[in-house]
Design goal:
With 424 residues, the chain is of the alpha/beta class. It has helices at 10-19, 26-36, 51-65, 83-96, 114-122, 131-139, 156-161, 165-174, 190-199, 230-241, 253-265, 279-291, 301-304, 324-331, 352-362, and strands spanning 41-44, 76-79, 104-107, 126-129, 150-153, 180-185, 204-207, 218-224, 246-249, 270-273, 296-299, 314-317, 341-347, 368-369. α2 runs parallel beside α3 (51-65) and α14 (324-331) packs across α15. The structure holds adenosine monophosphate. Adenosine monophosphate binds next to α3.
Length: 424
């Protein structure tokens, strides 16, 4: 199948060509035709599947075929959970609309709102936004959503995890009832289905799993290790393996900072990326990581979510996640584009139950290795580590752009599922 056969306009085909894509990805093949027909679409797809182009291309086509009002009110709203994802989608929208008369903008929290307000005033057709800042600007009457024709909810599962459900409900009230809705989510829990029921009308369901996140093709290994020896072991593995591009996950922001410092003092270029870092610092870290000047990027789950990093040979879980699905998301970052990848997890005694849950979820036992001199402590307790008091409570996405006053209930505590550490 080619992009030509999907019914996209010449201007979009030109932009696609410029990006160098030859074939639409499965999610693009499945989602683009019904979106172009004006249908609501519920898509199961995560980062790496080409989902962004899957909704952006038809959205741009629909807008470019409609009438543009002189003052350019927002006609398409794309809601995403994190700043990084918002920035990436905006980049994509800009690239795909290069040959169209479409204006786009991105707004997210954590940065001065003035330039964003000025951009909005000049008129914007496509707005990419995180919920908190969007509501802030609407509440100040800087932004109106009364002309929205297409509403996209991206990474809906992560939105719920981050406690954005109330914000989404508020936003829905600000957009016209008659609109086209597109919802993307990597997982489909009861809460996601409930959310979808409240938003979408007779949706077409499409799904695609990224080729490379099938866990079987990723070489996984668990290093059983004493907790106190983890830092030394990770430095040894990276140094002796001479690994040049490694994404490391830690459970907390504090842990990410600490580990980054220790890497740097051992002569490994590293940067941390998490919710407490400024947008500028995150962008710089990501750029350095992509261009090879930074060997190790240490990230928390929420900060890493949606990062567009093309090919990663190594992913290391410095701590394994307490939410098993996060493990699958994390290791899905290795072996992209068909290349082989390695996902390593350093597991101390207190993480044993998390490992058991992960193995249950992926349906396989991960091979275990023990490095001489780094043996697990036989006397260590296997009691699970405390989750910063967050267990069974509403998780707060530290990577979010929201102020602390707007905490809402989340879906993650549903069905006994563990909640993400609030220090993430
Ligand atoms: P996404 O899942 O939207 O985050 O996209 C993942 C990556 O795939 C991005 O780097 C896109 O630029 C790239 N991509 C999207 N569609 C295609 C395609 N049809 N062919 C090749 N690469 C693509």
């Amino acid at each position: 199948m080619s992009f030509n056969s999907l019914g996209l306009s010449d201007a979009l085909l030109k932009a696609i060509n410029k990006k160098g894509y030859d074939t639409p990805s499965p999610i693009q093949q499945k989602a683009i035709p019904p979106i172009l027909e004006g249908k609501d679409v519920l898509a199961s797809a995560q980062t790496g599947t080409g989902k962004t182009a899957g909704f952006t291309l038809p959205l741009l086509q629909i807008l470019s075929e409609g009438t543009t009002k002189r003052h350019r009110p927002v006609r398409a709203l794309i809601l995403t959970p994190t700043r990084e994802l918002a920035a990436q989608i905006f980049e994509n929208v800009k690239e795909y609309s290069e040959f169209l008369d479409i204006k786009s903008a991105v707004i997210f929290g954590g940065v001065n709102q003035k330039p964003q307000a000025a951009t909005l005033k000049r008129g914007v057709d496509v707005l990419v936004a995180t919920p908190g800042r969007l509501l802030d600007l609407c509440n100040q009457n800087i932004l109106s959503l009364a002309s929205v024709e297409i509403f996209v909810l991206d990474e809906a599962d992560r939105m719920l995890d981050m406690g954005f459900v109330r914000d989404i409900e508020r936003i829905i009230k600000l957009i016209p009832k008659k609109r086209q809705n597109l919802m993307f989510s990597a997982t489909f829990s009861k809460d996601i289905k409930k959310l979808a029921n409240g938003i979408l009308t007779y949706p077409i369901s499409v799904e695609a799993t990224p080729e490379n996140t099938t866990v079987e093709v990723i070489q996984q290994k668990v290093y059983r290790v004493a907790k106190a020896k983890k830092t030394e072991l990770i430095i040894k593995l990276i140094s002796e393996g001479n690994w040049q591009q490694v994404l490391v996950f830690t459970r907390t922001k504090h842990g990410a900072n600490n580990l980054t410092k220790k890497m740097i003092s051992s002569g490994i270029t590293a940067a941390a990326i998490h919710g407490n870092k400024s947008q500028g610092a995150r962008t710089k870290a990501l750029e350095g990581f992509k261009n090879g000047s930074i060997r190790v990027m240490v990230a928390t789950d929420i900060a890493a979510r949606g990062l567009d990093i093309p090919l990663l040979p190594h992913v290391i879980n410095f701590e394994i996640p307490n939410i098993s699905e996060d493990y699958v998301h994390r290791i899905g970052r290795t072996g992209r584009a068909g290349a082989s990848g390695e996902a390593l997890s350093l597991v101390s005694a207190d993480e044993t139950s998390f490992l058991t849950d992960i193995q249950k979820l992926i349906g396989m036992k991960i091979p275990i290795e023990i490095v001489e001199g780094f043996e697990p402590d036989p006397n260590a307790s296997t009691e699970p580590i405390k989750q910063g008091g967050a267990r069974n409570r509403s998780p707060r996405g530290g990577g979010s752009n929201r102020s602390s006053k707007s905490s809402t209930k989340s879906s993650a505590s549903n069905s006994g599922r563990r909640t993400r550490d609030r220090r993430n």
